[in-house]
Amino acid sequence: QVQLVESGGGLVQEGESTKLSCTASGFTLGSYSVAWFRQIPGKEREQVGCIRSNGRTIHYLRSVKDRFTISRDNTENTVSLQMHSLKSEDTATYFCASAVLRCSENQGEYDYWGPGTQVTVSS
Q1: Can you give the C-alpha Rg of the chain in angstroms?
Q2: Residue 60 has pLDDT above 90, yes or no
Q3: What is the model's pLDDT at position 1?
Q4: How many helices (H) and strands (E) in the chain?
Q5: Hey, is 107 helix, strand or coil?
């Protein structure tokens, strides 16, 4: 079966770092563009960034552009979101999603979605 699963969420203190992973099963993730989204309770889901199959990344969320990095490891069939200098406002559910074509500002272009993983940043 085709699925994406996020991992690495949990409780983190302000200023610390954590790394989220998106692991695919049932298909080769390296052939897809993969985006990270996050959703703060009560707010709209927003795209953090996206990595294309060729490894190029696009940063969509200005507030985390200088702190978050997306990378991929095709041997592990994963895409990661490295998060540095975490702030309380980073508390959210984080999702990964894949697209057959290029990265897109439109979330409707993404075919598969993971269930999300919760990141809570405490002060």
Answers
A1: 13
A2: yes
A3: 86
A4: 0, 11
A5: helix
